[in-house]
Design brief:
Strand content of chain A: 5-15%
Structural class of chain A: alpha/beta
Order of helices and strands of chain A: HHHEEHHEHHEHEHEHEHEEEHHHEHEEEH
Protein name (chains A, B): PLP-dependent aminotransferase family protein
Keywords (chains A, B): Aminotransferase, DNA-binding, Pyridoxal phosphate, Transcription, Transcription regulation, Transferase
Shape of chain A: globular
Cofactor (chains A, B): pyridoxal 5'-phosphate
Low-confidence stretches of chain A: 69-82
Helix content of chain A: 40-55%
CATH class of the largest domain in chain A: Alpha Beta
Oligomer: homodimer
Distance between the termini of chain A: 59 Å
Radius of gyration of chain A: 26 Å
CATH topology of the largest domain in chain A: Aspartate Aminotransferase, domain 2
Number of helices of chain A: 16
Family (chains A, B): In the C-terminal section; belongs to the class-I pyridoxal-phosphate-dependent aminotransferase family.
Mean pLDDT of chain A: 89
Largest interface: A-B, 108 and 110 residues
CATH superfamily of the largest domain in chain A: Type I PLP-dependent aspartate aminotransferase-like (Major domain)
InterPro entries (chains A, B): Aminotransferase_I/II_large, HTH_trans_reg/aminotransferase, PyrdxlP-dep_Trfase, PyrdxlP-dep_Trfase_major, PyrdxlP-dep_Trfase_small, Tscrpt_reg_HTH_GntR, WH-like_DNA-bd_sf, WH_DNA-bd_sf
CATH architecture of the largest domain in chain A: 3-Layer(aba) Sandwich
Strand order of the largest sheet of chain A: 4-10-9-8-7-5-6
């Protein structure tokens, strides 16, 4: 028990109104008893409170809450506000944006449901329930359905010729949950972690929620500056490097094969886990991307998140995490505490569909459809009289667009929301909270007519802002 | 930034091997720079390291790692072990027990899949996919499907005549996730919370994982000692009281109606949230249980967890959390960071089935089947020549059995595992880690023959232990 924690504890209780201004704080003896700690520790905490002007002393009486300490409207707040104020503050900036309804949803990096083989899928589900009549009555294990793990494990082995078995795999409800569980077992407050700059906004929110210090690694079309990565690993001893090296979200960049091998070596040398989020691997347009970093790893320093359901059946939310047992075992425990296991129904539906021939045909068609949408978006962007810049993505779901200085992203977003257009401002993808002249436009969720009309409107809005 | 946190941070890095024995620690200037904090703070942390014998000083050189500090086999550990050792340690004692395969599963408080209307359910699923052909292609919002929230909200309003709307509701993947998310937004390290003694083992693990101090409230067949509860609320100012007042797990006890009203008043007075976990409400045998505490709450101090899928379709894992917006709003954010929303597929299947007439008929039958299983278990327990004691549960899935002193639960569990019988030892349900003469036997997962044979075998094992 440590006096600084006791100090924080008392401050929290003052803030939530357990003790008001000029209230007497519990005696040192009593608080020591209550917290089950040494009196000296409490004494030190009270001294610090005094020193910081949070409490004052009345001779022979005790410690009292100082007036400057409390918020002016503490008394006025009603009960519900005070419940809220006592909750730990978490942010989810991306989901705040997604809550805005928009006719032109360029903010959603999801596949348009019209591009999915819905009817076939429904037929498939019916078959699955014929095969497993008791499916609805059965729980999954926290680690995930054995059959599903086996099929996905074999898939990875077949494609990449790695050694792997089903005990080195965990099924999660989407990649988001995998990121969250990994944070919970690896991040302690103040721990350094490396993240790409820019990166997936919701991952930033998760890592911050766990109290991590985020160290940015710039991601350019050529990859990372590996000397810089080494320096950062040496200097900060990060717990892990969270990366999305293939058709990266939001930029669309792909890390070159040479850097992949070198990074795995750096990870080993500096004992820094690489968390490789590979959600867009199969969404390539011209050629297949390089092999995952995971496949170069022999020492167990890469954890591989492969979200399979995004482009197959997003409603199912199936992600597989592959890693050494030393990583997977604590993850299973975290998963069992978090939700006791992903629903078996969705796992069984997925595993049967995933193995069907139809699924491969669907993927082929989907890639073409997405490529067409990307082309249309690029065409409209190029036609617009705005000097915005981007690099053609060779896969994935997004275009990362640099706005001219005359068009601030924040202004553009506000005006766009009003005209029912949504996109993701670059700032929320930046661990440094800058990148105010970048935006992410997803071409995957809206159809071809909507892309044309939406980008044209966006250009008009940008033009108006420029001319102000 | 606080020097005690810096101290912990350095200790963690020493433990994980960033610096070995007699290695020089970074200079104060450098570490202050790295962590972005004041040099004085680092200086204080180094002083404490010295004071605690974790570091020593070389004149005009700096701080070095002391030898007594490192584990003797730190060098010998292989890479994977060191990854594991760097993970935050979480426990999930209940899921450890469930991993043991057993012919007589008295440890699983789940409904036997044979008691569920599986065929009907499967037919139902097919209909749902006809209604929503694009179901597989669609994400849910983090808060949960609007239609499902509306149906469950109306159900609560109809049954209990409370004011409620769908914005005061969140859908989670089972009650386990609701407990976990609530812990994450309300518990900071060292915060006191009240829990029943005994209580749900996995809840203890979640709360401990968040760093809570667990204050036990004894639960007897007459309820709680409310004077004691008031004293504990006054003294410890707990963040919340996690309770399972209806057919309580593991005891089967139900909190009397008079105590329910008084508790809600206490909650208001001491600003202590009540988290009412009501997973077994519909599993009554003779008469309906009293109304949930939630229905007596007008000020927003009760959060109500109603797990609906347990006895309907456990494979779906659907729980609803009801509470004021001030609680639900931060919960939605936590949910969106945790997994971006429960799969839509399971929500849609559930909502349609839940509204069917068939569902009510099923519930009626299920209650009778469970009552018969309880009766059989009691009959066999009574026939055994062991002086064990229990109170007949009037609902729920478990019997809470007190063993004679001559039969320690730990010994009984070990011997039982060997004979393919599993149950939950009382100790893991006790926040004080005692209750070594109690065990929880679930009668819901095993069929009638298995109950007879299993309890008979259990009695024989107990008899042998007694005679030793």
């Amino acid at each position: 028990m440590l006096f600084k924690q006791v100090y924080d504890h008392i401050m929290t209780r003052i803030e939530r109104g357990d003790w008001n201004v000029h209230d007497k704080l519990p005696s040192i003896r009593l608080l020591a008893l209550e917290l089950g700690i040494n009196r000296l520790t409490v004494f030190k905490a009270y001294q610090l409170l005094k020193q910081n002007g949070k409490a004052y002393v009345k001779e022979k009486s005790g410690y009292y809450v100082s007036p400057e300490n409390s918020l002016p409207n503490l008394y006025e707040r009603d009960v519900n506000e005070s419940i809220e104020s006592s909750a730990v503050h978490l942010n989810s900036k991306l989901s705040d944006i997604h809550r805005v309804t928009a006719a032109y949803q360029f903010s959603q990096a999801l596949i348009d449901p019209n591009l999915l083989p819905n009817l076939f899928l429904s037929e498939y589900v019916k078959k699955v329930f014929d095969i497993y009549p008791k499916l609805m009555g059965t729980y999954s294990t926290p680690q995930g359905d054995e059959e599903l793990r086996d099929v996905l494990c074999q898939y990875i082995i077949r494609h990449y010729r790695v050694h792997l078995n089903t005990s080195e795999e965990l099924i999660t409800t989407g990649a988001q949950q995998a990121i969250d569980l990994l944070s919970r077992i690896f991040i302690r407050p103040m721990d350094a972690i490396l993240v790409e700059r820019p990166t997936y906004s919701a991952a930033i929110d998760v890592f911050r929620g766990q109290g991590a210090r985020l160290i940015p690694v710039d991601f350019s079309p050529e990859g990372y500056d590996l000397d810089m990565v080494e320096l950062l690993m040496k200097q900060h001893r990060p717990r892990f490097f969270y990366m999305n090296p293939t058709f990266h979200n939001p930029t669309g960049y792909t890390l070159p094969i040479t850097q992949r091998k070198q990074l795995v070596e750096l990870a080993e040398r500096y004992r820094c886990l690489l968390i490789e989020d590979d959600a867009f691997h199969d969404m390539y347009f011209d050629e297949r991307p390089p092999q995952p970093l995971f496949t170069y790893d022999t020492e167990g320093w890469v954890v591989y998140l492969r979200s399979f359901s995004k482009y197959v059946a997003p409603g199912l939310r199936i992600c597989a995490v592959f890693g050494r047992k030393s990583v997977i075992e604590p993850l299973i425990t975290a998963k069992s505490l978090a939700d006791n296991g992903t629903p078996l129904v969705t796992q069984k539906i997925f595993v049967h569909y995933f193995q069907s021939e139809r699924m491969q045909q669907h993927l082929e068609k989907l890639r073409i459809a997405l490529q067409i949408r990307r082309d249309i978006m690029e065409e409209e962007l190029a036609l617009a009289p705005i000097d915005w810049k981007w690099i053609t993505p060779k896969g994935g779901l997004n275009i990362w667009l640099q706005l001219p200085d005359t068009v601030p992203a924040r202004t553009l977003l506000n005006e766009s929301f009003r005209q029912s257009i949504s996109f993701v401002p670059g700032q929320i993808c930046d661990p440094l909270d800058e990148m105010q002249s970048w935006i992410r436009l997803s071409y995957s969720f809206v159809n071809e007519e909507q892309i044309r009309a939406g980008v044209q409107q966006l250009a008009e809005i940008a033009q108006r802002i420029k001319e102000r």
